[in-house]
Structure formats: structure tokens, C-alpha cells
Amino acid sequence: MTPEQVQMFFTRADGSYLFARWGRPIVPVVFGVEAETLSVMKGAIEAVVTLASHKMAEHDPELGANLMVFFFRDWAELPQVPNLERLVPDLGPLCDRLELAGANQYRFFRFDPDGAIKASFVFLRMDDHLAAIAAEDLALAQAAQVILLWSDKAFVEVSPLARIEDRVILRPNVAGIIRAGYARHMPVVARDASHAFRLAARL
């Protein structure tokens, strides 16, 4: 990939460049699924965390769990979750906007003072489209999209996944960027597009 191609993964709709990765071990918890799907989801998260050479943990000292994944049928269900609005500001109006837009997924991030990812909340409204996706594929796609702070445009037209015969995998360019972004000497946060040249040099 060229630096310009890498740059597009972190250039937001307003033209600004912003890269961030997790600065603390990831502690996932999944709501709204049966035990079988729960293990699939956590397995996908663990696989992507391993790809990044990052860490998982059993407990976050500040939040308990810092990666929360919610499966539900209607956006109106989320504001009823106890204490969730304390973690996701303006949750009610946000859900109203998402419902009006017909959205079936949304990711919200919180950050530590240095800009590193502190927590992520993944909301999946299981409409016909998401329900038709295999649990393994949906889990892998979501895990890839929360391991870094990608641009809001990064996967609008192209999925982070690719199909090879009967298997679904992370696209090699996406997997490469994840590995490069978590390299030891790379910054946890970057706001200058020159960062994309450093990423590209590691691919």
C-alpha cells in the first residue's frame, strides 16, 4: 500500500487525520446473545488483539469492562439499559438519530488524557442484513473496527473482511495496518498525516 492509501484509513470526513490505539488491556463483555455467540465474539476479539500484539485482561481497574458489545432489536432499547447514559453521553438523542437514519450499527469511543482509546461501545441492531451474516464474520468485522480508531469513512464502501474460497479473513491490508499501528515504536496517538508514511513503511 502507498502512504496515501494508508492515510485514507484515518482521514475523517472533515479532512482531519486521527489515529489512536488502545493504551490499556482490553476487557470485553457482550450483552444480548446466547453463550455460543458470546464465545464466538470473544474469540474474534482475542484473535485481533493477538494480531496487534496487544493484551487482554479480566478486569479494568477503572471501568471493570472497557469494551462493551450490545446486540438488540430496536434502538429504543438502549436508553433503558441502567447507567449506560453515564458512559455514552446524550444516548437518547443519539439513538433517535440512528433510528431515523435506519442505522444497524454504531461504535462510540472514550479516550484517556493522552488520547489513547480507553473504552469502546459497540451497538448492533440486528436487522435482516446483520442477521444474515454468520456470527463468526460479524464478530471478526466488529473486532477489527474497534482495535484502532479508524476514519468514519474507512469501511463505508469496503468491508474489513475478505472471502478466500470458503473462508472469511481480515483483508491483508487491514491486518497489516493493525500490526503496524501497534508496533512498539509507533505512537499511541497521531494527528499528523505523516504518520501514514510510517505505517506504510512497516507494511
Could you name the key traits of this structure?
two-stranded antiparallel ribbon; 203 residues; 8 helices; 8 strands; 2 domains; Chitobiase, domain 2
CATH architecture of the largest domain: 2-Layer Sandwich
| Number of individual domains | 2
**Count of individual helical segments:** 8
Give the uncertain stretches in residue-range form: none
Helix content: 25-40%
Bulk shape: globular
The spatial strand order of the largest sheet comes to 2-3-5-4
Residue fraction in strands: 15-25%
Report on this structure:
- The chain has 203 residues and is α/β, with parallel strands linked by helices.
- It has 2 domains: 75 residues, no CATH class; 125 residues, 2-Layer Sandwich (Chitobiase, domain 2), CATH 3.30.379.
- Helix content is 35%, strand content 19%.
- The strands form 3 sheets. A 4-stranded mixed β-sheet has the order 2-3-5-4, with helices on one face. A two-stranded antiparallel sheet has the order 1-8.
- Helix 2 crosses helix 6.
- The protein is globular.
- It starts with a helix and ends with a helix.
- The mean pLDDT is 95.
